[in-house]
Design goal:
The chain is an alpha/beta fold and 308 residues long. The protein folds into two domains: 106 residues, Alpha-Beta Plaits (2-Layer Sandwich), CATH 3.30.70; 196 residues, Rossmann fold (3-Layer(aba) Sandwich). The protein has a seven-stranded mixed sheet with strand order 10-9-8-11-12-14-13, sandwiched between helices. α5 links the parallel β8 and β9. The protein is globular. The termini are far apart.
Length: 308
């Protein structure tokens, strides 16, 4: 029998992805949504009504998670959510300690191998994948860190990274991955041909998980992960990756831009669509020129070039 903790919140449907992203960063191992699509007798309603405007999102955490700290962090996050989406009904709904013999494996049923872009394939460590010619297969064991490749923000980053190595006459040699999580972005860059990749994260669990994933994919000699703050990094890189929320990107725009070498590329994601203009405007003030933009659902990813 395994013990877990659950943490439930009420959210608008348009904020689910943002809250999901936040809870994964806090260490969530999986989510469940309360769609409430049942009739009065408990059978599926006919016709099925549209999803409710407000739904309950429940995240599951390891037993050692401090629910008081998690609740405090969520309440602080609500201010950022309001800045992005406006005032809404989001609130803490409840938490519980649970015992379940099978839940720890159930969430894995939803993490399947998937091809992203032309060559990259992301697969979980527990699943086999028959690789085709030219496939670059990245194996991920999420552990308690954020990043499986299934989220829109990660997928868009991976496509930009692949493009940098496959459709450019001068692919990047050095890469910086800010807030590396499972290391998926930096490891992808290493597997695609980067010679030096640095992943940084202030979460000690993420540092451990990213290091193990680098070993799992045979790039531990190229991908280095450090538990350090971004401000402590002073090198310049050919490619800089930042899958963070827009408010953090804007606050760090000058520092992030300074870490990008002249002529280098910068990939930013984790940006709510409505905030992309503000991010572009801020980075354009620091010698960064927008080269491409892509949208997936509620999220935007941006590709910049550093002016010489």
């Amino acid at each position: 029998m395994t013990r877990w903790k659950s943490f439930s919140v009420k959210v608008r449907r348009e904020t689910i992805d943002a809250v999901n992203h936040f809870l994964m960063e806090q260490g969530s191992l999986g989510m469940a949504y309360d769609e409430q699509l049942l009739g009065a007798s408990g059978d599926p309603a006919a016709p099925v009504p549209p999803p409710p405007e407000i739904t309950k999102l429940t995240a599951y955490f390891p037993w050692e998670t401090n629910l008081w700290d998690l609740k405090r962090n969520f309440l602080e996050f609500l201010q950022t959510l309001r800045e992005s989406f406006g005032e809404g009904p989001e609130e803490f709904h409840g938490a519980a300690e649970i015992t379940d013999s099978g839940w720890a494996e159930k969430w894995k049923e939803h993490f399947k191998a998937q091809k992203i872009g032309q060559r990259l394939v992301i697969k979980p460590s527990w699943e086999e994948y028959p690789a085709k010619e030219n496939d670059v297969v990245l194996t991920v064991d999420p552990g308690q860190a954020f990043g499986t490749g299934t989220h829109e923000t990660t997928r868009m980053c991976l496509r930009f990274i692949e493009s940098a190595f496959t459709s450019d006459a001068s692919p990047p040699r050095s890469v910086l991955d800010i807030g590396t999580g499972t290391g998926i972005l930096g490891i992808a860059a290493a597997m695609l041909g980067a010679k030096q990749v640095l992943g940084i994260d202030t979460d000690s669990v993420a540092v451990e998980v990213a290091g193990k994933n680098a070993e799992l994919n045979g790039v531990a000699d190229v991908f280095r992960v450090e538990g350090t703050i971004f401000e402590a990094i002073h090198e310049k890189f050919d490619l800089v990756l930042g899958n963070l929320i827009s408010e953090i990107l804007i606050d760090l725009a000058e520092l992030i831009s300074a870490r990008c070498a002249p002529g280098g590329r910068l990939v930013l994601s984790g940006i709510i669509n409505e905030k992309s203009g503000s991010v572009v405007k801020e980075f354009s003030n620091h010698q960064m020129k927008l080269a491409d933009e892509t949208i997936d659902g509620e999220w935007t990813a941006l590709l910049f070039r550093k002016e010489p």
